[in-house]
Amino acid sequence: MSIDVKAAREDTRGTGHVTHLNNAGSSLAPHPVMDTVVGHLRREEEIGGYEAAAEAEERIASVYSSLARLIGATPGEVAVLESGSTAWAAVVSRLPLTGRRILLGRTEYWHNVLVLRQLARRDGLELVVLDDDAHGQVDVKHLQCELDRGGAGMVALTHVPMGGAQVQPAAEVGRACRAAGVPFVLDACQSVGQLPLDVETLGCDVLVGTGRKFLRGPRGTAFVHVRRELLDRLEPALHDRHRSAGGTDKIEARALESWETNVAGRLGLGRAVDYALTLGLEPIRGRVTTLAEALRARLAAVPAVRVHDRGLRRGGIVTFSVDGRTAEQVKNQLSRQTINVSTVALPPSAAPLVLDPAPEQQTVAVRASVHYYNTEDDLDRLITALP
């Protein structure tokens, strides 16, 4: 099975206006997703917000089923929130820790690190930054040594760093954490929508994803999965507004949600998930990987360009620098030619935030992130337009 790129581009109105290579920031949504969002907003306009939500009750419930299928979970283990950062903090701040040491990857997302620092200061916890291996991925051997020492209360890892190509060996980390009985929290905001994800295979107890990036959903949407065994143990106790569908006293992850929410965005998120599932995550991964490697090869052939990507497995994020130009200058020049990219600081390291040393020497690089609706012509446009 392969991606019908022509059909995908016909479904993506923005491809007629821009060359969009900023999918790690926010993808171009397919028109069925945006039609779903706008359609519900129109219905709110016509009959009222609460009434439109009641009318869409079954469709809202199906969003949880779709998200559960996407990651191999059950609907009761999934909550929908407004951002990945909010979802991550909502769960991590409530996790019951049996150990006083929190292990985290060196490329953990900066907001996650700030939350962990607050918890560490409040509860007297120790933050331990895991080493990277020679490929720039988390060193699973170092992780195992830290787990063997005992006293670990949680392991946190960003699956795909916001400024890196590497796909972290999350399943290996998950197996080690399960064997040690230590909760594993996986930030999948950059991997959901470009890679197949299964929470059992990954071995994670918590998985956080966002709608706006590779999933191609609306902004202001995200979700979190919490393994059933953890739900009843989250502290402080969750509100009991959401009970399981079976009528038992088990709390559902939806208890993490606030009552007031963007129903149109939620429906759009569900439509984006269904769109991705219809295409298939394996074909999506194959096309994204192929395009990203093709872009790296094109960039490497330009004498003034340096590609920064590392990792044994690499995804759709490509980072590079151009001699004699700042990343912001490159981004702005490309923007003037309707080519969308972003910038990012490298290396995306958690160590300074944890250890408070002098800031690391960082390079601000250009970040081009491809998706399956991009084409070889899009890559050629980027190369031709470089200063």
What's the pLDDT, averaged over the residues? 93
The strand line-up of the biggest sheet is 2-8-7-6-5-3-4
Low-confidence stretches: 243-247
Instruction: Output the number of helix runs.
Output: 15
CATH superfamily of the largest domain: Type I PLP-dependent aspartate aminotransferase-like (Major domain)
Helix content: 40-55%
- CATH third-level topology of the largest domain: Aspartate Aminotransferase, domain 2
DSSP E strands, number: 13
Total number of distinct structural domains: 2
Q: Identify the CATH architecture of the largest domain.
A: 3-Layer(aba) Sandwich
CATH class of the largest domain: Alpha Beta
Q: How far from one another are the termini?
A: 38 Å
Shape: globular
Major sheet details: 7 strands, mixed
* Class by SSE composition: alpha/beta
* Proportion of residues in extended strands: 5-15%
Radius of gyration: 21 Å
The SSE order reads: HEHHHEHEHEHEHEHEEHHHEEHEEHEH
Structure report:
The model is unreliable at 243-247 (pLDDT under 50). Helix 4 (57-71) crosses helix 11 (263-279) and helix 7 (140-149) packs parallel to helix 8 (170-180). The relative contact order is 0.18. Helix content is 41%, strand content 15%. It has two domains: 5-28 and 280-385, Aspartate Aminotransferase, domain 1 (Alpha-Beta Complex), CATH 3.90.1150; 38-278, Aspartate Aminotransferase, domain 2 (3-Layer(aba) Sandwich). The protein is α/β, with parallel strands linked by helices and 387 residues long. Helix 9 links the parallel strand 6 (184-187) and strand 7 (206-210). The protein contains 15 helices and 13 strands. Residues 21-382 form the Aminotransferase class V domain. It comes from Pleodorina starrii. Keywords: Pyridoxal phosphate.
